[in-house]
Each structure stands twice: as C-alpha cells, then as structure tokens.
Design goal:
The chain is mainly alpha-helical and about 425 residues long. It contains 14 helices and three strands.
C-alpha cells in the first residue's frame, strides 16, 4: 500500500532512509542525531566521562599553559636549596623552629605568587597605588612604638605568634610598579617621558626612601635608589635630562658623605670595607669570618650539616645575611656556582620577559624586578666574599625571612602576569 502511494518502505535501501534500528540514522533530509554518552563530546550524561582536572589545567586556553615554567622551577629550586641551608645554619638550636617557619614562609609566598600571577594585566596598574599606600603606612608604623629595633635598625613590626614583617621589602615593589605607571603613560602614545612624568616619579619615590633612611636601613635605600635611577634611564628619557639627573645624584652622594649624615655604625662598616684589617674583631668580624668559612669549603665543601665554622656559630647572621657563607663551607665552590647559576637563569628569564613585553609598562615592571634581584644578589654575595660593604641585604629566595620571601614571590607573580599577557595577546 505504501509503495503504491510513492512512500519508501521501512527498512528498504531506497531513498536513503536507512535502517531505523540503527542508532543515529536520519530520516529524509533531517540530520542524523548524535548518540549521547561518551562519544557526544560532553562531560554530562550518565555515560559521559568528565574531563579530568589535569586536562582542564593544561588546556590551550588555561593559565598554567601560559606560565614561564623555567622561571617558576628556578625559584622553587632556589627556595628548596635555601631551606636546606637555613636548616644547616640553625642546627643545634634545640628545635626546628627556623626551618619550619621558612617552609611556612615559602608556602605563603607561593600562594601570594599564584594570586598575583592570575591577575589580569591591567590590575597591576590598579593595585599599584594600593600597594604604595600600604607600604607607606607600614614604614610609618615601623618608626612608631609599634616598630621593633633589630641590629640597630627599626625596620620591623612584630606580629602575633612570633612573626615579624619588614615593610621596606614591599616598598621596593611599590616603587617599581608606581614608577612604571608614571613613566609609561606618555610613552604609550609614542612620546618620550617629560619632566612631569619624571617629577611625579621622583616625588613618589622620595617618600619611602626618606622613611627607610630614618629607620635607618642603608641597604634598602641603595636598592630603592638603584631602582629609581634604572627605571628612569630605561624609560626613554632624553640624554641631556638623564645626564642632569646623574649629576644631581652624584652631588647628593657627596653631600651625604661631607655633611656626616650617615650613622656611626654605617661609617664603621664602610671603613672596615676599605681597610678590613683595621678592626678584625669589631666591624670587620662578620666579613672576615664569612671569607674564612667560604675558603674552608674548597671545591666540594665539607658536606651539608657538617660545616665546622657554621656549626660553631662563628659567622654572625649566618641564616640571613650571610647564608652564602653556609653554602661556601658546606657545598664548596660547586654549590656556590649552582646558586649563582640559578640566580643567573632567573635574571635571564626576567630580561626575556622584559624584552618581549607588549607595552612600556610591562617592560619597566620586568626590568625593575630584574634590577632589584641583580643588585641585591650582587651586594649580598659581594659582602660575603669581601668585595662589597656589609649592608644587611638578604639573598633572594635563599636567606631566611618572611617579608623578603613574600615580596620576592609577589615580584615573580608580577613577572608571570607580564609574560602571560604577552603570550595570550601577541
């Protein structure tokens, strides 16, 4: 009957109707229905297989795929090596307080780094004034009775549970972000930064520099001044204005020396650096013991946890400022070379991020962080081997300390944000 009306028989091969018993077969001109279940391409349904967390994490559009993993692994390696050195430097104290606190500092620092690295690139500009104001409030609080003097410098604020915070560490990052913001505003339109942008940058930076000088903390002041000068030089300022600023900086240094604005202990440190044998049992003691410890390590060191000078606590502040002496005695030249090599990789990755940044702001942020880590590492290692005066600066990611670890990790997060922005939008 149906064949007389011109309709296809059910199940006949004619007219392309297909077998109705076959799943997904189409009827007439209707598209075939895709069967549900594991082959539907969806994660829902009773027979569906949900995408694993690992697949989501490393998908093409995920944030993890756009991180600089070489930079991240380098930072983790430095932190792990530093934890072992801190453990060795504080052994015999009767507890593992320092190494436990250092591990807690690393975990908190990695958390802060992760939070910053997932921020939108534009939020770095948005949060820069907030970080600047918070760091200024912290510096002001350190100068009040809330501050705790440590080694003659009132740079710390004591928190509950025995933790201390050093606001000047966050002041370095605030200067980098604020300087990048001011010096990149005009540069985005193709114009060079003028006196207005440089004036705003100098006015912004002079406040935390003066507050840190009042603590006093000469090492942090040196870092801040180097950051300020380096970012202004890299911003594209005209050479004649740059030369004028350099001359003004030289005159300021001469004025500080001639007007005796340095503290007495700061002058003694400079004197001991120029003439180490002048006071070997006084101001020159730290550097002298550090050089002896490094020399005793020779090529391969005396072994981790087996350093005699470190075990006898002959090197003052060996878990913080002079952590490189611990590496020298216990790991030898090879261990010191590994630390310097990891720091070099970190700086090269930061320079790579700066060179490939999409705009002036990102370039200046990455360059500022590079200057920060490079100058601080050079001063710390230099004062340990006797080529720089003792200034009390920690070795990034290696020395014991919470504030330094937090600030360093936040800086790495900012580098990852600049790198991710370039990777996504280039």
């Amino acid at each position: 009957m149906s064949s007389r009306l011109g309709l296809p028989r059910l199940g006949s091969p004619g007219q392309g109707a297909g077998n109705p018993r076959r799943p997904g077969a189409g009827y007439g001109k209707l598209a075939p229905v895709r069967p549900g279940g594991r082959w539907s391409g969806r994660s829902s349904g009773p027979a569906g297989l949900p995408r694993s967390l690992l697949q989501r994490a490393f998908a093409r559009d995920s944030r993890l795929r756009h991180l600089d993993w070489v930079l991240l692994l380098t930072v983790l390696a430095l932190s792990l090596l530093g934890t072992l050195l801190v453990w060795s430097a504080t052994r015999g104290a009767g507890s593992h307080t320092y190494v436990v606190k250092q591990l807690v500092n690393i975990v908190i620092g990695i958390t802060l780094m992760a939070l910053v690295s997932v921020l939108d690139y534009r939020q770095l500009r948005l949060y820069a004034p907030v970080l600047y104001v918070v760091s200024l409030l912290g510096l002001l609080a350190a100068l009040t009775p809330l501050g705790t003097p440590v080694n003659g410098s009132k740079s710390w604020i004591t928190l509950p549970a025995g933790f201390q915070i050093e606001p000047s560490e966050f002041g370095k990052l605030a200067i980098i972000l604020m300087s990048a913001m001011f010096l990149s505003e005009l540069r985005e339109s193709g114009a060079r930064p003028g006196l207005r942008a440089v004036g705003l940058t100098l006015g912004m930076a002079i406040v935390p520099i003066v507050l840190v000088e009042r603590e006093p903390d000469l090492g942090v002041v040196i870092i801040m001044v180097m950051l300020l000068g380096g970012l202004i030089a890299l911003s594209g300022l005209r050479l004649r204005w740059l030369g004028g600023l350099a001359a003004a900086g030289a005159l300021a240094i001469l004025a500080v020396l001639n007007l005796h604005l340095l503290k007495a202990y700061q002058l003694r440190r400079l004197t001991s650096f120029v003439n180490p044998a002048a006071d070997p049992q006084g101001t020159g003691y730290n550097a002298a013991q550090a050089k002896i410890a490094i020399g005793s390590g020779r090529m391969f060191g005396q072994g981790l946890f087996h350093g005699q000078l470190i075990g006898g606590k002959f090197v003052p502040e060996q878990h913080t400022d002079f952590i490189f002496a611990v590496a020298g005695e216990e790991l030898g030249f090879v261990g010191c070379a590994v630390i310097i090599g990891l720091l070099a990789i970190l700086l090269l990755r930061a320079l790579r991020i700066a060179a490939r940044a999409d705009d002036q702001f990102g370039m200046l942020v990455a360059c500022g962080i590079t200057i920060w880590f490079a100058v601080q590492s050079f001063i710390n290692i230099g004062m340990t081997i006797g080529i720089m005066p003792v200034t009390g600066l920690p070795l990034p990611f290696v020395s014991y300390g919470g504030s330094a670890m937090f600030a360093d990790m936040i800086a790495i997060g900012a580098l990852q944000t600049v790198h991710r922005h370039r990777t996504v939008f280039s």
